[in-house]
Amino acid sequence: MVEINWTKESERWLVDIHDYIAVDNKIAAIKTVQGIYDKAQLLINFPKIGYRHEQIHDREIRILLYGHYRIAYLIKDENHIDILGVFHGALDIDRYLF
């Protein structure tokens, strides 16, 4: 079983996503963040479910999709995954991963 670690930066992304959506709809904000978290939990049993981010060859960074969001994660080894961030599809993800 894989252990998932949410980095401080990924936690900040979740807070920012929540706060942005909550301006208009607090319930939707909670549901969106919970949905992102639940989707990431799939990595416990299926760590390679996301597609490999081709821009980074020396590390195994993968992207898991949830609606308009991309959950970027690093497979550190067979038992550990770091969630690096949660990015809206409109953002240039490479700007944040390099």
What number is the mean pLDDT? 91
> Order of strands across the widest beta sheet?
1-5-4-3-2
Principal-axes shape call: globular
Question: Considering the protein shown, what is the CATH homologous superfamily?
Answer: RelE-like
Q: Give me the strand/helix succession.
A: EHHEEEEH
Strand segment count: 5
Main beta sheet strand tally, sense and closure: 5 strands, mixed
CATH class: Alpha Beta
Distance between the termini: 29 Å
Oligomer: single chain
Structural class: alpha+beta
Amount of helix? 25-40%
Which CATH-level-2 architecture? 2-Layer Sandwich
CATH fold-level label? YaeB-like fold
Write the layout of secondary structure elements.
Blueprint: E1 3-6, H1 8-22, H2 26-41, E2 51-52, E3 61-66, E4 69-77, E5 80-88, H3 93-97
In words, what does this structure look like?
With 98 residues, this protein is an alpha+beta fold. It has a single domain, classed as RelE-like (YaeB-like fold, 2-Layer Sandwich), CATH 3.30.2310.20. Helices cover 37% and strands 31% of the residues. The protein contains 3 helices and 5 strands. The protein has helices spanning 8-22, 26-41, 93-97, and strands at 3-6, 51-52, 61-66, 69-77, 80-88. Strands 1-5-4-3-2 form a 5-stranded mixed sheet. Strand 3 (61-66) and strand 4 form a beta hairpin. Helix 1 runs antiparallel to helix 2 (26-41). The chain is globular and about 40 Å long. The termini are far apart. The model has no long low-confidence stretch (mean pLDDT 91).
